[in-house]
Design goal:
Bound molecules: flavin-adenine dinucleotide
Number of strands: 22
Shape: globular
CATH topology of the domain at 4-147 and 335-389: FAD/NAD(P)-binding domain
Distance between the termini: 62 Å
Structural class: alpha/beta
Length: 469
């Protein structure tokens, strides 16, 4: 059977959050057309297979696509996010993307959507239901699969699990019908945190939970990520305090201490030095709740689980058949490899603002639409490398500050940032009443400290890059 021939301006592989945010800007800022291809039956990527109790971990206000609000505009009145902006549930995020596709993208007449299709490379894809293959004649190829988001329901753990072990992804916690003798939660990233919080919320005794934490993490206080006027002092104040802490620090270790002292970083156990930083965002109430779990296993990564033992890098702990082992070891956005965003016909969306893959995809699409020269485009879209280890915070923050500086120097980018829904922060700063002395003082602190903080980060970077011994 020969390939069906199609033609488009932008061929986008992946209709996850990144592909959707990119397509949305191309639709609103150009007259080009688009083909979106994805293996999943619905847009929204990993949200198709999310666990039932997942929510965003950052405010809904700056998630989704630029052209459509996701947030309900409400603050949570109950629970561990009380007082802070709403966090859309996984179901709400999925419904939102479905709505964007059905009511905005497809009616535009400029988007063709191919769900249930496997992208094969070289402009080709195959429909997994019909077996039909397609070749697309395209102007630009957008690889919106690059971040390689990995979630527990679809990933393969990198340790062995013996037959007969009660081992489930955190998605399946909701399928339990008979209480086990205990739980072992494997993984200390955002999904591990979610699993532990959900068990506690459902009144599981904290002493019935053992939490395998290969590395402790530096966490971000959600109160400092609120894009609304009422939280100006937290959000913008945290930026200023962050830069001041960096400047005042005498060493990298001292910098982390100061970042914690000023409230920029949180950690679960004050006695254990975090070695991981993935940008997970959490409320202080959630941290308090997590501290109720006392059986935290810090013996490195799991190597193997048998019916009687969990074998870790640095030790062995007992287990039993009537204990449920909850896999939270997938690493959400996982690809640490970076490459230029713009390379001829190929566009590879990556992070250009820290913690914000969706805003980043929209910003990259805007640069694609509004600028011609490839070097200039790549200069405006310097890749902010994904953090993994604690010290990656340094490279990540330095790269983001460089982008922020470059955008500030470019009139077009400045205007675009002020207008874009996914950028909650530029507007906050721009809308400050000049008579509001407190807020002006915070902005002055940021302006004064940012260049010195950027220099200090460069110093630390060269220390890290210098060979030891
Ligand atoms: C639990 C959780 C909470 C999160 N909360 C937030 C938050 O609050 N704020 C925030 O900014 N970010 C958050 N994130 C991160 C964010 O949602 C996304 O993970 C990130 O934006 C990456 O999206 P993506 O589109 O690159 O990846 P994906 O969602 O994985 O999308 C990639 C798509 O590509 C498709 N694909 C891959 N290969 C092929 C192929 N060969 N052929 C066809 N299709 C293919 C996949 O089917 C998938 O649909 C969260 C992530 C998780 C896991």
């Amino acid at each position: 059977m020969s390939d069906i021939k199609l033609k488009t301006d932008y061929l986008i592989a992946g209709s996850g959050a990144v592909g959707m945010a990119f397509a949305d800007i191309i639709l609103s800022e150009t007259d080009k057309d688009i083909i979106l291809v994805d293996r999943y039956p619905k847009p929204g990527g990993h949200w198709n297979v999310a666990y039932p109790y997942v929510t965003l971990h950052q405010p809904s206000q700056y998630y989704g696509v630029s052209s459509k609000e996701l947030s309900s505009g409400l603050k949570d009145q109950i629970g561990l996010n009380k007082g802070l902006s709403d966090l859309a549930s996984g179901q709400a995020v999925s419904a939102y993307y479905d709505d964007v596709m059905r009511h905005q993208f497809l009616p535009s007449g400029r988007v063709q959507y191919f769900p249930m299709c496997n992208f094969l490379g070289d402009g080709r894809f195959v429909c997994m239901l019909s077996g039909k293959t397609y070749t697309v004649d395209h102007q630009k190829m957008v690889d919106a699969t690059w971040l390689k988001t990995s979630v527990p329901s679809t990933h393969k753990p990198n340790f062995k699990v013996e037959d007969g072990v009660n081992f489930i992804p955190l998605n399946d916690l909701t399928k339990i019908t008979k209480a086990p003798d205990g739980y072992v939660v494997i993984g200390a990233g955002k999904t591990g945190i979610d699993a532990v919080l959900w068990l506690l919320e459902n009144r599981v005794d904290p002493d019935n939970i053992r939490w395998i934490m290969p590395r402790d993490a530096w966490l971000l206080d959600r109160k400092n990520t609120q894009p609304s006027e009422a939280f100006f002092e937290n959000t913008m104040g945290a930026q200023a305090s962050q830069f001041e802490a960096i400047i005042a620090s005498k060493s990298i270790e001292d910098m982390f201490n100061r970042l914690e002292d000023c409230g920029y970083f949180l950690r679960i156990d004050k006695n254990v030095r975090p070695k991981m930083f993935h940008g997970a965002t959490i409320s202080k109430m959630e941290v308090e709740e997590l501290r109720r779990v006392k059986q935290v296993i810090r013996l490195g990564r799991v190597q193997r689980i048998t019916k009687t033992e969990i074998i870790l890098d640095q030790g062995i702990i007992p287990t039993r058949a009537d204990i449920i082992h909850v896999d939270c070891s997938a690493r959400a956005v996982s690809n640490e490899e970076i490459k230029p965003v713009f390379e001829g016909k190929l566009i590879t969306p990556q992070m250009v603002r820290s913690y914000q893959p969706v805003f980043s995809a929209a910003a990259i699409a805007h640069v694609e639409a509004a600028y011609e020269d490839e070097d200039e485009k790549n200069r405006l879209c310097g890749v902010v490398p994904l953090p993994n280890h604690d010290t990656d915070y340094i490279r990540f923050t330095a790269a983001f500050m460089m982008n922020q500086y470059n955008w500030g120097q470019d009139r077009g980018m400045r205007h675009w940032l002020l207008d874009n829904r996914l950028d909650g922060f530029s507007k906050m700063a721009a809308n400050v009443d000049p008579e509001d002395a407190d807020k002006i003082a915070i902005l002055k602190r940021i302006r004064k400290s940012a260049p010195m903080a950027a220099m200090k980060l460069q110093q630390y970077l060269s220390q890290l890059e210098r060979p030891t011994g």
